[in-house]
Write a structure and sequence with these properties.
- 2 copies of one chain form a homodimer.
- The first copy, chain A, contains 6 helices and 5 strands; from the N terminus they run βαβααβαβααβ.
- The first copy, chain A, has about 150 residues and is of the alpha/beta class.
- Chain A has a single domain (about 5-150), classed as Rossmann fold, CATH 3.40.50.
- In chain A, strands 3-2-1-4-5 form a 5-stranded parallel β-sheet, with helices on both faces.
- In chain A, strand 1 (about 5-10), helix 1 (about 15-25) and strand 2 (about 30-40) form a beta-alpha-beta unit.
- The first copy, chain A, is elongated, with a radius of gyration of 16 Å.
- The interface between A and B is medium-sized, with 23 and 23 residues.
Chain lengths: ~150, ~150
């Protein structure tokens, strides 16, 4: 029932606490962790606006920024994957660009996971305050059980 | 981390599925289950209105109704408690009258549970559709992890 779980991380503190619970759930049969990080595509919009604000053309800097954010995400995912492997779990990492809750639900389906484990509130921002948190949307729409770790 | 869990049940189908997961979580160290059923105090209001509608005085029937609903709840809780005991868990049953999400959060605190396991949507009714589900409110306000089992 908890054999293959999806762990979407935004690298926030509460997301780090999830690790403690994954460790604990090993007793309930977790074997594989699908580690997912979604780079919010809407952040690129903000970035573009910033570049334009200082009078530059976004196109010149977009690739550079994309490379930076991808490298940084891969670095952080690598550290988490390493720890999960150390405690004896099989890990598959996925890095995608999109809208977080949409990509999480897509991964749930594509990977046929048996549960999702996530932090209740990640990096809080104005967008989340207005639209509801990523976790709330995932809980509402997921098909598998969701284990919600509180901040 | 999952030693003592709170299992609020409204006796709905999804609540029954929770049992399967509790069984599974035994491997992660569940020892005690606090089994909670909240008789929604607002249902008494509806009952009173019904009695008045047919031209009777609510006071005459209230005790009778209260006894019926309490006996029925105890019977259903008994069956769940028996099954939990059978799989080797210590069970403590609590039957209270109140507002469900408030009583669930109160029990979380009073019993110092380490997690809450519940169904995503219980008996759906108009009240829930308008005010949001019990589980959503519990997830938002609880201090411990919440394991949400989907319908």
């Amino acid at each position: 029932m908890f054999k293959k779980i999806l762990y979407p991380t935004d690298f926030s503190d509460v997301s780090a606490r999830v690790m403690d619970y994954i460790r604990e759930l090993k007793g309930s049969g977790i074997q594989t962790v699908i580690l997912l990080h979604v780079i919010d595509q809407r952040d690129f919009k903000c970035f573009e606006q910033g570049v334009q604000w200082v009078g530059k053309l976004p196109a010149e800097f977009e690739n550079e920024y994309r490379k930076y954010i991808t490298d940084e995400s891969n670095r952080q995912m690598g550290a988490i994957a390493k720890e999960l492997t150390r405690i004896g779990l099989e890990v598959r990492s996925k890095l995608v660009i999109g809208v977080p809750f949409v990509e999480i639900l897509k991964a749930e389906e594509e990977e046929s996971v048996s549960a999702i484990i996530l932090g209740s509130h990640g990096k809080s921002n104005i967008r989340e305050m207005m639209l509801g948190s990523v976790s709330e949307k995932v809980i509402r729409k997921s098909k598998t059980p969701v284990i919600v770790i509180k901040r």
